[in-house]
Amino acid sequence: MRRLSAAAAIPVLLYALSACGHSNSEDRASLPTAASSAGTQAPSASASPALPSAPAAEAASSAPAASASSEESAEPSSAADNGVPLYRMNANYDIVPIDKDKTERKVVLLTFDDGPKDSTTLAPILDTLDKHHAKAIFFVNGYRVKKHPELLQEIFDRGQTIGNHSWDHIQLGKESADTIRKQLSDVQDIVKATVGSPPVFFRPPHGSGNADTHAIAKELGLLYMTWSDGSLDWEMSGDKIKDKTAAITRNITDQLHAGSNILMHELSWTAEALDSVLTTLEDKGYSFVDPGLIDVSDQP
Ligand SMILES: [Zn+2]
């Protein structure tokens, strides 16, 4: 397949900005996490204190992973030339040091959902991450990967981490186990087929999950996360907000804490804001955790 360089201009598809939809619609009864509410439009815009999240239902460990079943045990795509993990995720979906005494605590995890969409938006995000020597997780949807495998390859080639965000961006918390399994495993398969290794991180669209979603993610070797610091960039389509860079920066810094799991999206205004956001975070003494240093086997 032809690879596009980041700079290559390809026609911009104007996507109807279907507000990426991290709405507050999650099935709280089945996913009582603090993070998902903090990340959504909690009026206070501040991160909720950590609440214990429901333990993921035990996976039926005998069930074969529907994907990733190839003989060649591929390295996880996020991973791990880095050797030993230095961080783990806690129940609030924050990224915390495994060894508090030896590892920098003041880090954030950068994440970009709902790609890959188009090179015009993606390229500046990748360039800005490079400028700040930052790594991030790009949570992708299968139907978008199918349209733009070259963009997935670009993300991978630039040393960024690919995460699973379901095939269709649906509310998995409302779906059957069979549907959930297909939504997740099809993404595992297409990512592996495209870049050679499957994701090890999973984020449910809309933060919507149920016990089956947790169990199936675990079956597939995926670390399940929502977020703990929502940029609210998904609410900024249209002209209502004049200075989107300022708004995104403020939303993130209002909720900022050590280990913040920051939710952003592949959106043009987020791409424009990113340099300022990352500079602000650096000025506040934060560094950007490499997803490859997170212990994905440690699901809280
Ligand atoms: Zn999404």
How would you sum up this structure, described in words?
- The protein has 300 residues and is of the alpha/beta class.
- Helix content is 30%, strand content 12%.
- Strands 3, 4, 5, 8, 9 and 10 form a six-stranded parallel beta sheet that branches.
- Mean pLDDT is 81; it is low at 1-81.
- Bound molecules: zinc ion.
- Zinc ion binds at residues 20, 22, 113-114, 165, 169, 205.
- Zinc ion (ZN) binds next to β3.
Task: Summarize the SSE layout with pairings.
Elements: H1 34-39, E1 87-89, E2 95-97, E3 107-115, H2 119-131, E4 136-140, H3 142-147, H4 149-157, E5 161-164, H5 177-195, E6 201-202, H6 211-219, E7 223-224, E8 229-230, H7 244-254, E9 261-265, H8 268-283, E10 287-288
Parallel strand pairs: 3-4, 3-9, 3-10, 4-5, 6-7, 8-9
Antiparallel strand pairs: 1-2
Bound molecules: zinc ion.
Zinc ion binds next to strand 3.
Question: What is the structure about, briefly put?
Answer:
This protein has helices spanning 34-39, 119-131, 142-147, 149-157, 177-195, 211-219, 244-254, 268-283; strands at residues 87-89, 95-97, 107-115, 136-140, 161-164, 201-202, 223-224, 229-230, 261-265, 287-288. It has 300 residues and is α/β, with parallel strands linked by helices.
Total beta strand runs? 10
Low-confidence stretches: 1-81
CATH homologous superfamily identity of the domain at 85-293: Glycoside hydrolase/deacetylase
Measured as a percent range, the helix fraction is 25-40%
| Main sheet characteristics | 6 strands, parallel
* Mean residue pLDDT: 81
Structural class: alpha/beta
CATH class of the domain at 85-293: Alpha Beta
InterPro entries: Glyco_hydro/deAcase_b/a-brl, NODB_dom, Polysacc_deacetylase_ArnD
Domain NodB homology: 106-289
GO molecular function: hydrolase activity, acting on carbon-nitrogen (but not peptide) bonds; metal ion binding
Biased composition (Low complexity): 34-80
